[in-house]
Write a structure and sequence with these properties.
Length: 195
């Protein structure tokens, strides 16, 4: 049976563009992820891009991806775009989608892990863009894959869902696919930074 693969390049390229637009004076600003600053979100992106690249390569990852602003690497402006590129490259290998793999202490089929990687990049990319007042574009096909995943995740296991997402935010059925994805992940698509 052939394993279905996804290309993470569109999403990682867009998030790298957003990262490049983050100003130093925005690092302490809030994000839609309550209690997380822009710096904390950037640190989380640094950690998750490494963890999911290693998952594609079937290598163990050191620790988990934190949201600690204090842990943000000083070279994040260079490191994060390079890691986003490496993440997309690792998942281009068809072998990345075969067998099982692990990230963040969770073991699952590699095909599902690739979808989780895309979901993390797309959703946290939006978090970063809206927190820093930047436009954000997601390929509708990528958003659809993530929406399907987010809608199904944790069905029958509310505790697992709570560990990954906040409570679902109601969004109209005819809303854009990205807005519906955001609602499924516990985000208000209309969120803006406080004045």
């Amino acid at each position: 049976m052939e394993t279905k693969t996804l290309d993470l390049t569109r999403a990682t390229t867009e998030v790298a563009r957003v990262v490049a637009g983050v100003r130093d004076d925005q690092l302490t600003a809030p994000t839609p992820d309550e209690g997380t600053s822009v710096a904390g979100l950037l640190e989380h992106l640094v950690g998750l891009t490494l963890a999911f690249r290693l998952a594609a390569e079937k290598q163990p990852a050191p620790g988990g991806a934190s949201f600690s602003a204090e842990d943000l690497a000083p070279d994040w402006r260079e490191r994060l775009p390079a890691q986003l590129d490496a993440l997309a490259e690792a998942w281009r290998d068809p072998a990345a989608w075969e067998g099982t793999t692990e990230a963040g202490g969770v073991r699952m089929p590699a095909g599902a892990m690739g979808v989780v990687a895309l979901d993390e990049v797309v959703v946290h990319g939006w978090d970063l863009a809206v927190a820093t007042g930047q436009p954000y574009s997601v390929d509708p096909a990528d958003a659809r894959v993530c929406l399907d995943f987010a809608s199904d995740f944790g069905r029958g296991d509310p505790e697992a869902r709570r560990g990954m997402y906040g409570p679902v935010v109601p969004v109209p059925d005819d809303a854009p696919v990205l807005d519906r994805l955001l609602g499924q992940t516990g985000r208000d698509p209309a969120w803006t930074p406080p004045a």
